[in-house]
Amino acid sequence: MPRAVREQQMMDAAVRTFAQRGYRAASMDEIAELAGVSKPLVYLYLNSKEELFTACIRRESKALVEAVQSAVEPGIPADRQLWSGLRAFFTHTAENPDGWAVLHQQASSHGEPFVSEVGALRKEIVAFVTGLIGAAAREAHHDPALPDRDVAGLAQALVGAAEALAGWANVTPGVSAKEAATTLMNFSWAGLENLMHGRGWQPRED
Q: Where the record puts its DNA-binding region(s) (predicted)?
């Protein structure tokens, strides 16, 4: 079997083990057994448990970003772009629950260097969503009234909501990716659309 194929088998086993057992409880013996290889071969290919976990984070991050970006078709209306991206996000996290658990639960709770790896993923997704919201503002009116900082803040909020909702959807029976994406669109788009047309909410003076 080619090395690249064997390595992916090991990482598949590692992602499943890390997701289900947790990073600290997972052992290289378990990963090797699940992959159908010897433990020395796992070490030979992937060096250490820390490096193996880092490789898993990077692989799952890349797959998630590619799934979201490839789903968004340039040139279509802004709401359809956002809808396509959200539906792809929830579809991917639903179809890859172990990968999402590694990214959303395990990596973010075990310190460096794992937190930085997940931070890089989040930064890339936020940048992509920032672009979508900025494009939507330009579509709404030629001279967009939304300041760059507001657009960046909205992107952070939307990504955070998507992460939380994916975590909930993956453990709640019967919630489809389409339903989760619809929920977030209903929650976010009406507000975004109002903002883009200058109808922002302001607190009353006390």
A: 27-46
Tens digits of residue pLDDT in 77-135 = 888 888 999 999 999 999 999 999 999 888 887 778 888 988 988 999 999 888 887 77
SS3 110: coil
DSSP three-state, residue 189: helix
Nearest to 195 by CA among 160, 150, 161, 152: 150
The Cα-based distances of 67 to 38, 90, 93, 97, 125 in angstroms read 33, 10, 10, 14, 11
- Check residue 107 and report its DSSP letter: G
Give Cβ neighbours of residue 151 (< 8 Å, ≥ 6 apart).
Answer: 130, 133, 134, 137
Distance CA 67, CA 89 (A): 7
The pLDDT tens digits for 28-57 are 999 999 999 999 988 988 888 999 999 999
